[in-house]
Design a protein that fits this description.
The complex is a heterodimer. Chain A is mostly helical. Chain A has 2 domains: 6-46; 54-265, MetI-like (MetI-like fold, Orthogonal Bundle). Chain A contains 11 helices and no strands. Chain A has helices at 6-42, 48-51, 54-67, 69-101, 103-118, 125-132, 136-160, 164-172, 177-215, 220-229, 233-265. Chain A is flat and about 75 Å long. The relative contact order of chain A is 0.11. By secondary structure, chain B is an alpha/beta fold. Chain B starts with 5 loop residues before the first strand and ends with a helix. The chains are: A mainly alpha, B alpha/beta.
Chain lengths: 267, 254
């Protein structure tokens, strides 16, 4: 540190100041937004029946939390999302592996996958409910369907973009196809796989919330729809806020995992 | 002369697509004896690398036979070393793990094999880098690590596919010396593919000049210049031979 030049010190000072400023403004915007919302609602310039207000949302949150009802909803939605996401990811990676293994199989199913990828999977909701009944399994399946194709397509592209020469090298050492997969194709595509997870976690949320809109008796999606039906906009807004925080938290979790693994893999 | 280690006899080979076929090799023959260093010299895209893939057992010829120690080659043979243009070190493995890659494909390397890798790494000046990752190494060091990965399987047949072409000129000359002396220690037969005439003369015992695709044998030169690659480059016989081969190749480059 003693060898640090004056120019470097000035630069660091300036850069640190800029980072502090960005952080300050970020938080400031949120605080200002909430204050303004509350103020306009109190002054009756905003219709707090339709738009709620931060304090009303807070009260709704506390009253639902005190009975424990809120945590039932949060727990249900989280459980469905995590299971849907994990199943979708495992199935997506398994399909990608199968299609990497057999190019013929991949070619055969290509048009079907294109159609499935283009189809808004949410449209299948009513059919799923008729087939497997209104309940958690239908919601999880919905979440799985929404995320699985994206995972499969992205991961397969990752597998295929691993340099052919690296595979040739392993084969020359006498490696089997399975060894080529486990030693270079899968680890080589891990960064792509992990970034696919960041997309599919969002997809899983979409599947779960829509599923809950359609059938459920519990969960944040249910809470939001119920609130809308009985015109309790406090409930709708509060549910949406909680959803925002949970989804963001889960995304950040996956992103942190990606960063950690990428660093571990030196990629 | 002794029984050839590797023998390609009357091999023809084409790449097939729905659009048509591209002949790559036409009635090509080659024999490589134990301890011999042969360079295949020819224009880019003439099918030199295909010869290596055939010798490695990664491709099957349309016509002709490929024998290794008298046995037909149908799959990669044991004790084969293959070195490519790029180092292809795996970024998620340490230098030491990369060097042991070929061994680990065939099961867990033994302690004596790992000791041998460590001493090879030390001999190549990589002793302080064994537990580092490839991203922390320079281009020349990476290619050295790739060489050790190749030699770790104790090959008796070494296939080199333009292994120096991605390096800068100085590193290339230095590494040629190193590779040559390591190969001499290992006593393995080597097939080098290159389009660099100087490199071929400075390293090989025998040079085969190939035509453009489909590759045919045009000329054969036995090199009698002694010494290391660097010493050979300063030998009075080097330049005349370079000019001769230059003229042979020239017709095919334009």
């Amino acid at each position: 540190m003693s060898s640090e030049s004056a120019a470097q010190r000035v630069f660091v000072q300036k850069e640190k100041g800029r980072i502090r400023f960005i952080r300050f403004v970020r938080i400031g915007i949120l605080v200002l937004f909430l204050l303004l919302w509350e103020l306009l609602a109190r002054l009756s310039l905003l219709d707090s029946f339709l738009l709620s207000s931060p304090s009303r949302m807070g009260r709704t949150f506390l009253s639902l939390a005190s009975t424990g009802e809120l945590f039932l909803h949060i727990g249900t939605t989280l459980l469905e999302t995590v299971i849907g996401f994990l199943l979708g990811t495992c199935l997506g990676i398994a399909l990608a592996t199968l299609f990497w293994w057999s190019e013929t199989l991949s070619k055969i199913f290509d048009p079907y996958l294109v159609v499935l990828n283009a189809l808004p999977k949410i449209a299948l909701g009513p059919v799923l409910i008729v087939w497997i009944g209104a309940g958690m399994p239908a919601i999880i399946l919905m979440s799985l369907l929404v995320s699985v194709i994206v995972t499969q397509v992205t991961v397969l592209n990752g597998f295929l973009s691993v340099e052919q020469d690296k595979i040739t090298l392993l084969r020359a050492f006498g490696a089997s196809k399975l060894q080529c997969f486990t030693r270079v194709v899968f680890p080589g595509a891990l960064p792509v796989t992990l970034s696919a997870l960041k997309i599919s976690i969002g997809m899983s949320w979409v599947g779960v919330i829509v599923g809950e809109f359609l059938v459920s008796r519990a969960g944040l999606g249910y809470l939001i729809v119920y609130g809308g039906q009985v015109f309790r906009l406090d409930l709708v807004m509060m549910g949406t806020m909680v959803l925002c925080l949970l989804a963001a938290g889960m995304y950040l979790g996956v992103a942190a995992l990606e960063k950690k693994l990428s660093a571990r893999l030196n990629m | 002369m002794s029984l050839p280690l590797l023998q390609l006899s009357h091999v023809s080979m084409a790449y097939h697509t729905l659009q048509g076929e591209t002949p790559v090799l036409d009635d090509f023959s080659l024999s490589l004896h134990p301890n011999e260093f042969v360079a295949l010299l020819g224009p880019s895209g003439c099918g030199k690398s295909t010869v290596l893939s055939l010798a490695a057992g990664l491709l099957r010829p349309d016509k002709g036979h490929i024998l290794c120690r008298g046995n037909p080659v149908t799959a990669p043979i044991a004790h084969l070393g293959y070195m490519l243009q790029k180092d292809h070190l795996f970024p998620w493995l340490t230098v030491r793990e990369n060097a042991a890659l070929g061994l680990s494909v065939r099961g867990k390397p033994t302690q004596s094999q790992m000791n041998r890798i460590d001493s090879l790494l030390a001999a190549c000046g990589l002793a302080d880098y064994t537990n580092r990752y490839p991203s922390q190494l320079s281009g020349g060091m990476r290619q050295r690590a790739a060489l050790i990965r190749t030699l770790a399987v104790e090959p008796d047949l070494l296939l080199l596919d333009e292994p120096f072409s991605a390096l800068d000129a100085q590193t290339r000359l230095k590494l040629a010396d190193e590779v040559k002396s390591r190969i001499a220690e290992q006593k393995c037969a080597t097939l080098l593919v290159t389009h660099d005439i100087g490199e071929a003369i400075s390293m090989a015992d025998r040079i085969l000049v190939l035509s453009r695709r489909p590759a045919k044998l045009l000329h054969e030169h036995l090199i009698s210049i002694p010494g290391t690659p660097m010493q050979r480059r300063h030998d009075p016989d080097f330049t005349p031979l370079f000019d001769t081969i230059w003229k042979e190749v020239e017709n095919y480059v334009l």
